[in-house]
Structure formats: structure tokens, C-alpha cells
Amino acid sequence: MEIQVQELNNQNLFIKDSEVEQRNDLIKNILLYKVDLTLQKGTDYYGTVEIHLHLQDNRNTDNHVQIDFAGQKVDFVKIRNIDQSDSQFRNIKFTFERNRVMIDSEEIMQDLKQNNKISIMIQFKNQYNNTVQDRGLFSTITGENQYLYSQGEVASMHYIFPCVEQINFRAPFQLSLVHPADWVVISNSSIAYQQNINNLTVLSKFETTQPFPCYLYGIFAGNYVVYNQKYKEKVDLNIYCRKEKAKVIENQIDELFQITKFGLNLMEEYTEIDFYMKKLDLVFCDNYNFYGMENPGCISLEEKRYIFEEEREPLKIMRRAYIMFHEIAHMWFGDFVSLEWWNNLFLKEGFATFFGYKAVSKYFSQLEYGIHIELQKIMILIDENKANMITLSHEKLPYYDYSMFKAHNCISYNKGGMFFQFLEQKVYGEQQFKELLRQYLRENSFSKVDEKSFLKYFKDIYSQKYLFKNHLSYFCESQFTDLMNLGLVEDNYKNLDLSFIVLSKINKSVINSKYDDLAKYSSIDNIILLNTSDNHLIFNRIKMEDLKFLDENNIIEKFNLFQRITIWNTLLFENIQFQKQEYFNDFFLRNLQYENNMVVLHYIMRIYPQFCKQFTEKQEDKIINLYLQENDIQKKRIIFKNLIRYINSEKNTFSLIQIYENQERKVKPKYLNKLKQKIKKIYNDSIEKITKLGNKQ
């Protein structure tokens, strides 16, 4: 899953860690979720859920059974033994409060036989949610059309229907929906059959899925339009969007299908495991509070981010493909093989990041868009520096913390992805890494994994270090420094076949070198930099005198893409980890003109102002002049979109207003809102002037 915003929740009502442990002691396995929902237009829905439980043999008979449900009402709870053909459901006593359906153990014992298998039926009522701060079955209404969509991660499925909200229980999902006849309904599996109840209502029954954690169950319904293609004549591909976006998406639909097919093919070839479902849907959702969600068989995606209503910059084009590849990779990592618990989130998000960028690199091979992952090192650095930051694999946090996405950060995603890339490219080599990963998937298919499962296959010293420790290693003046006690020694670095950039101060030539050859080059006559675009997790420092030499001799103009990224990463590293300096900004502004990769240019222009010393008014003048003098249309547009990040002075804030006023197209509200905040302290009456810009066509 790719995160956009964090949700709010009441910690006092959330599932407690002691309750998780109590259920682990009680429940051996969940055999089936049978969910029947009646979806109505408007605000309400209702239904029943049957949960088939296999209880532990040596359980504590005093323990009650707790079912999680943060809905409106529970009408009744029934129970029966599921291995007796003549067993009938009977009503039992229960309490429903504080988002919990509690069943006394004595009620359970009456129906237990030797097999310890029971079915609990719960009838309930609930309402759709319509704000991004809520959880549950979301609803958006546009005119006469209504659209529903679910999002279950981390622990949000119990806001939709009663369930045991734990990732460590996998169970098949059997869904039936009664719904308005003009609605399309979508879930993880294909529709087995449909029946008209009357002219206005239809019953749709879906095929039973393979066993998945319940947070991966997907429920979508509404006035969607659908586009269809086939993947290798074996998988139905369906793309759903709101009716209101049909005309916009039509000229992009072939590209969206092409990305989907490319991602599926790459994953099948790399893993040697075919996609295991009959169909794969992409559902574009309005007001979706996540970038994407990997429901097996029905990926959900944020509409505004991926259905382009105007020409988009290369970074946006690349990011759309990346997120789609990321979610497709989850079909194998996170779905086919899921987590024992959230403290090893990197085993799904890290792998999805790794394969997402691998696919981008191959899909846009001629444009070098895949190099974007190398810029993500800086975001790892930010999180590594935070107090009490988690490691890739860590001691369990409180369950509530996971529900607030405290592990969904740059460690689990970016560091996880780069760690796997590091193992593939620097430790094992692509072929051996691929073979180990295939074995890992085959032997853990449709089951759960943890850090021990991973280390069973990957036994190298680097995995032992990076999984359990924070790291901040850098290269400077021909030696490696470790600021966080990662524990690697010089030989460990030497064995990685690292690449270095050697610049002669005498003739200004630039060559690439390996570690063993560095002794040939004196630091007096040469500048030696670690190539940070070389599939590893090590940073690079640079002496101020060396940076000035690069600047004064226009060396960046000679650098290739990988060498330029090394400089941008190094500049950011110096700002973040050591001391922000005004000269760094001058260097950045003077050398920005040499960045001709539009993805890299867009990214560094977005990220640099977050971590540098505030720009002086004179430096602001330079960035504005850079925009005004730029002739390349695409480059000019990228600079324009990022100007707001650099301007703080009163004079240039109003210069920016003039630039916005001269735009032929409507200025986006997000830029105007940022501008409002900047000038609020200057002149209150200017707010009205800025607001008028938003109405300009």
C-alpha cells in the first residue's frame, strides 16, 4: 500500500495487544468468512457475517470470544458446530460495546465437539463513511451517482463488518451483495452468478477466494464504467472509473492496460509464479485517502493522481506507473505471501518498492526514469535520524501504533526497497538472489512470514545487520564512517564492489574507479566521491573546497546522470546531517541548469527546500530569473510548479503573484493556498487578490 494521509482513531476503543494475544491462544485458524451485505443508495447498509473458527485444542476455557466491529448495531449473534450436518444455528447471549462483540465461553462450549470448529453468525447494521478521516466503507456522491469503496489496511475491515481484525489469520472470503440494479459491484474474485430480485435490485454472488488476511478483502459498488482487456488470454483485466471521468480516461486507457500487463509479466518472469487469480481489476476511487491498495484481484487507486486531466510532467507519469507496479507486486509480496505481524512490514512494502522501481526502470528504459529510486536515500536519512525510529524488523509496537501507520514510513518502504536492491546487485548477484526469492515464495505460498522466514534463505552478514539496526554510513576522504553502530568493517564495504567517481583537479577529467584502485589517486590532486547511484545504502560527504572546485570549473556540466545524482544526494546529506550553509544554496542554484533529466530535476526541486538553509532574497531572485529565462517548455513548467517552495521574502512573494497572474491556465488551488499562507503575515487584504486568481480560467 502507498500512504497519502494518516487517519484519526480513538485509541481507547482500538483493539488492545492483550486482546490479540488472548485470541492467538484461543483461535487456531479462521476457516472462512461468509459475508452477505445489502447495499442501499444513501447512507445505510446491513448484512450478516458467518465466521468459521477452528479453536485451539489447549485453549483456556475461561476465555470469551471477541469479534471486532466498529459499526452501528448488532441485531443478533448465533452459533453452531460446522462439522455436524444436522447442526442448526441457535441464538446466544452477547454484549456489543466499545467496538467489540463479546461472547461468553460458556455459550461456545455448548456447541464444541472434538473437532473444535464452530461458526458464529452476526447480523448487523452500519453506515457508509464519507470523509477521509473516517474508516469503513467509503461513499462519494456526484449528482445522481454514488460510489462505494473499501480500504482495510492496517486494521480497518472491522469498521465495515464484524471480523477478527488480525493480519496473522488468513481465511477465504465468500461475498454476496444485494445492490441497486444500476450499480456495478466488484470484489477480489469474479462474480459466480447474478439474479434479479426485482426491477430495482440484484443479487451478486462472488466466487470464494483463496485464504487472505481480512484487511485485503475488497468491496466496491456504484455507477462505475468498465473497460476490459485480456492478459495472455488467461486473466481478465478490468479498469473501473466513475462515469464522470469516462471521457477523461478514454485516451489513457490503453496506457493503463499496458502498464498493468507489463507489471504482471515482469512479476511472473522474475518469480516464476503465475498470477493466481482469474482477473485483476483496477478501481479508481474519488477522494481516496491512499495512493493505492493491493486488494488481491481488485487494486484500488486514487483517481486524482492517476487519471490525468491535463498534460503531466515526467515525474508524475513515472509515479503513476510506479504506484501501479508497486500494487501489482503486492499480489506476490503481501497477498500470496503475507505477514505474521506488522513488525516486518518491509517484507511486503520493501519488496513492492523494489519491484515497483525495477519495473519503472525497464518500462521507461530509454528515459532513465528508474534512477529515481536512488534519490530516495535522502528520505531514509530523515527517518533514520528520528528518535526511537523503527528498524526494518523490530520488536512489536502497540497494535494501535500500526493502525496509525507509524511503521508505514521511509524505513519500511524506501529503505526496504533499496535493501533488497542492494542484496540483488551487491551481495548475491541477480541470478542467485532471484533463485532464493523464488524458493522463498514457493515454500511460503498462501501463508505467513516473519524475519526468521526471510533469514532462512538470505544468510549473509548484511541482512543480519540491516534488518535489526538503524544505519547511517558515509564515505569521505577514502574511508567509511558509521554513525549508528551498524557494525560493518572495512572488508565488508570492500566486498561490495562499490563504484567511485574520481575527478582530476589537474586536467579536470572524470573517471570511474573501484575501491582497490583508489590508492592510485592522491586526495591532493583528485576529488574522490562514492557513486551513490550504485545500488547501496551508503551516503557520501564532500569537503567544502572540493565542492567549490566543482562549482568554479562548471564540472557538473560534464557529469553524467549518475554522477549528478551523487552530487544532489551529497548536497542534501551535508544539509541534513551536518550544517546548512548559504553556499550550498548558491551551488544548487548555479548548477541546477545542468540537470537535464526531468524526473530528477522535478524531484530535487521539490525536496531541496525542505532541508536547506532558508533562501536569501538574492537567492530567491536567482530562482525567479531561472524560471523567466528558461526556454525549454517542460523544464520551465517544472520550475514554475516549484517556485512556491523557494520564496519567502515580501518582495518576491508579490513577484510570484505577478507570475501566477500571467499564467494562461488556471492556477491550482494547492499553489494558491501555499501563497495565501506566505502573504498572510504581510497584507491581509492581499488574500482577496490571491483568491481571485483561483477563478481565472
UniProtKB/TrEMBL annotation:
GO terms for cellular component: cytoplasm; extracellular space; membrane. Residues 33-216 form the Aminopeptidase N-like N-terminal domain. The keyword Hydrolase applies. One of its GO terms (molecular function) is zinc ion binding. InterPro entries: Aminopeptidase_N-like_N (IPR045357), Aminopeptidase_N-like_N_sf (IPR042097), Peptidase_M1 (IPR001930), Peptidase_M1_aminopeptidases (IPR050344), Peptidase_M1_dom (IPR014782), Peptidase_M4/M1_CTD_sf (IPR027268). It comes from the Eukaryota. It holds the Pfam family Peptidase_M1_N. Its cofactor is Zn(2+). Residues 260-461 form the Peptidase M1 membrane alanine aminopeptidase domain. Keywords: Hydrolase, Metal-binding, Metalloprotease, Protease, Zinc. One of its GO terms (biological process) is proteolysis. The keyword Lipid biosynthesis does not apply. Gene3D superfamilies: Neutral Protease Domain 2, tricorn interacting facor f3 domain. Belongs to the peptidase M1 family. This is Peptidase M1 family protein.
